[in-house]
Amino acid sequence: MELVPELTPENLLHDRDEGEPVPLQSFKTSAEAELVCNLLGENDIRCFVQGGDFAVIPGSFSQEVVVMVDERDISRAIELYEAYFDAESPAPTDQEQDEDE
Question: The pTM is what?
Answer without folding.
Answer: 0.61
